Amino acid sequence: MKAIVVEEIGSFSIREMDIPVPGEAEVLIRVSVTGLCRTDLKIIRAGHRDLVLPRVPGEEVVGVITKAGPGVKRFQEGQRVYVYPGTSCGTCEQCVSGAENLCDKMKIMGFHRDGGFAEYVLAPEASVIPVPENITDEEAVFSEPLSCCLNALELAMLKPGESIGIWGAGTAGTLLSRAAADISAIPYSIEPDQRRRSLIGGVVSPPVKGFDAVVVAVGSRDAYLQAIRHLRPRGRLVVFSGLSRDSALLPVDFNRLHYYEQTIVGAYGCSFRHGEQALKMLSEGSITVRDMISHRMSLWDLDKALGLVEERAGMKILLYP
Ligand SMILES: [Zn+2]
Q1: Distance 86 CA to ligand 1 centre (A)
Q2: Cα 52 to averaged position of ligand 1 atoms, centre (Å)
Q3: What is the DSSP letter of 203?
């Protein structure tokens, strides 16, 4: 099979590899479509805390099971599935509490084990979720970024009727905005780029009045500094986007947090249940995503696709092996 392989940070190659053989409780999936996101750009060009090399990247995968290991019980060949990218121990405190994304033994597809930038990918049976019949592969592949947004909104403790300021209107920002509206909260998108704002409305700079919650979905230090100034009393800031190592230390007025009882909370990745929830929302039509697809490209044109991500030239880019 053909695959994208990252051997050292900064470059990748297109390689011919053996089709992997599923272990006891694993399935082999022929990749139908894989989503490209800023994290892939970061992984390939700058590296990532969780990346172990050499690696086939790709953490947003929908495909068809072509082979099931002897111990696989719930799935058969020919089934259309979405892959929750993580595998965790299942027994530690984090796993039991439903935050397996924080498990010490967490292994992420595309980071610790090979991902979907290939013709085939292996996944443990426990990580696989069937795709509902009424949605396309292209819609289903949004489950991964949507799951991360659902985790962020959960940590924001967002309630119906509350306002939420979302910095950045890329794929994640747009999904955050739509998911917030779905629970009857009032999203405001803050995005200087008019083209990016076009799908969800939004404003260039935040209104004077603050928000009950703010989420920063753009890796910008200035966005964080602006967002934290727009928190209402008891407001929650969700740290959704990572910052480059040299810009991650921010001056925060702790007295303000103290007097206004404000909270800062991190959000990283998602849990399996968010994947199930995302697919359900897509299937029920409570979130629509089709208008967010800006490019459909061959996976083997990855270099060009990464350029588009870097220039913020598109919205969601889908890749086909
Ligand atoms: Zn665990």
Answers
A1: 11
A2: 19
A3: B
- Bridge partners (DSSP) listed for residue 238: 215, 265
- The packing angle between helices 143-155 and 171-182, to 10°, is 60
**Token match 């800006």: residue?**
294
According to DSSP, the β-strands at 186-190 and 13-16 are unpaired
Centre of ligand 1 from the C-alpha of residue 126, in Å: 14
Q: For residue 318, give the H/E element and its range.
A: strand 316-320
Instruction: Say which residues have a Cβ less than 8 Å from residue 65's Cβ, sequence separation at least 6.
Output: 27, 28, 29, 75, 76, 77, 78, 79, 81, 128
Give the contacts of 145 (CB within 8 A, at least 6 positions apart): 35, 37, 60, 171, 172, 175
Spatial separation of the C-alpha atoms in residues 256 and 22, rounded to whole Å:
54
- The model's pTM is 0.95
Phi-psi region of 201 (alpha: psi -120 to 50; beta: other; left: phi over 0): left
Distance 98 CA to ligand 1 centre (A): 10
Please spell the DSSP secondary structure of 239-280, one letter per residue: E-S---GGG------HHHHHHHT-EEEE--S--HHHHHHHHH
- For residue 104, report the distance from its CA to the centre of ligand 1, in Å: 6
Q: Residue ranges per domain, the chain?
A: 2-146+269-320, 157-266
The residue type found at 41 is L
Q: What's the mean per-residue pLDDT of the chain?
A: 95
Could you report the per-residue pLDDT of 254-279, keeping only the tens digit for each? 999 999 999 999 999 999 999 999 99
Per residue in 60-100, pLDDT (tens digit) is 999 999 999 999 999 999 999 999 999 999 999 999 999 99
Distance 127 CA to ligand 1 centre (A): 14
Distances (CA, A) of 177 to 167, 198, 217, 301: 10, 13, 11, 30
What is the CATH number that goes with domain 157-266?
A: 3.40.50.720
Q: What is the model's pLDDT at position 206?
A: 84
The domain made up of 2-146+269-320 is a member of CATH 1.20.120.530: no
